[in-house]
Amino acid sequence: MIEQPILDELWDFGDPAASEARFRVELEQGGPWDGTERAELTTQLARAIGLQGRFDEAAALLIEIPDESEPIVGVRVLLESGRVMNSSGHPDSAAGLFRQAATIAARLGATFLQVDALHMLAIVDSPGAEDWTARAVEIAESSSDARLKRWLVSLHSNLGWRHLDEDNLDAAFAEFTEAARWADLVGTVQQREWAQEALAECSAAMDAASESL
């Protein structure tokens, strides 16, 4: 199994094309990786391709990963297949894949991937967004892993944006405040910047709402 910090070094979510190139180089020239690790890298290659809108190509890569792979690979295949389905306009189908991923990850004790799946469920399942987020927050807060705790920034921020889109300004501000708190505690520089930008946007919306009364 590949440790998450290794994948973090290969990923640049702001530049999926560059990430694709890194994963291809790693698969062709890196390692030595065992079969499970190569399969995990392939799921991330598929994700990078999907982020560029090449959904069929990403799906084909995921389908080619052997069914007899280790369970952790199966979780990653479900996660990335769900992301491809959601990005290509099929959130309902994606939700089922994310539920499976969350269930299997929990059984394996793969809490980072479990939280990832729950965070995706909160995105694709609007009626259940708060419940999925609450479950993910509970897991992340109870972890001693600072990298896993970093999910708390995204979890609170995503829910904040959902509330803001629904003009539930007080709830949005509360979530953005929590996101900023966790960003200060465990987040990256970029997460801290994003958290402050979200708070500023929400504050501006609250001021505008007050002025219109």
Tally of contiguous helical segments:
12
Q: What percent of residues are in strands?
A: under 5%
Secondary structure class reads mainly alpha
By DSSP, the count of extended strands is 0
Helix percent reads over 70%
Radius of gyration: 18 Å
For the record, give the distance between the C-alpha atoms at the N and C termini, rounded to a whole number: 56 Å
Shape, principal axes of CA atoms = globular
Contiguous uncertain segments of 5+ residues? none
Biggest sheet character: none
Order of helices and strands: HHHHHHHHHHHH
The pLDDT mean sits at 95
SSE blueprint:
Blueprint (H helix, E strand, L loop, with lengths): L3 H7 L5 H14 L5 H17 L3 H10 L6 H17 L3 H18 L2 H14 L4 H14 L3 H4 L1 H15 L3 H18 L2 H23 L2
Would you write up a description of this structure?
The chain has 213 residues and is an all-alpha fold. The chain has twelve helices and no strands. Helix 3 packs antiparallel against helix 4 and helix 4 (55-64) runs antiparallel to helix 5 (71-87). The radius of gyration is 18 Å and the shape is globular. The relative contact order is 0.07.
In brief:
This protein is mainly alpha-helical and 213 residues long.
List keywords for this structure.
globular; single chain; 213 residues
